[in-house]
Amino acid sequence: MGKLKKILLLEDSLADQLFIKRCLLKSNVFASLITCDTKDTFYRQLRAIEPDMILLDYDVPGFYLNEAFNMVKSFNQNIPIIYVTGNISKELVDETLITEADAYVLKECMEDLPDVINSIWLHNMVAKERSKLNQLNLEVEAVDKKLIALMKN
Length: 153
What we know:
The model has no long low-confidence stretch (mean pLDDT about 85). α1 links the parallel β1 and β2. By secondary structure, the protein is of the alpha/beta class. Helix content is about 50%, strand content about 15%. The protein contains five helices and five strands, in the order βαβαβαβαβα. The termini are far apart. The protein has helices at about 15-25, 40-50, 65-75, 90-95, 115-150, and strands at about 5-10, 30-35, 55, 80-85, 105.
């Protein structure tokens, strides 16, 4: 069995932290959820735990616009990011990096979060396996070329 996934949640509201945790537990998303509510704790936890996924509230005091998103991407480009936010306008989506996140879920649609998380993890797993398969194909082609060269001699 694989290792327990680690999700880092940046959320300044304790009530929302508990709501998200309860939603994930109720939906059988088995992952360690580490919560942060300040820039300092988020920065430290990002480096300390090396999370498998990040859940970001868009509007956290101490962060300016996409600062948390940029912090994650400068640490590791491959960590999936899901914005979990109270409300978001089309203008805000168009003007920010939310469109570059892997997904976003409105807090009023929290029941969608477990499916979004599982979908992203499945997509990433398939992408990794596809990459491994492509590498194996390249190795097989290289061996084939060597065999053909040996057979010609």
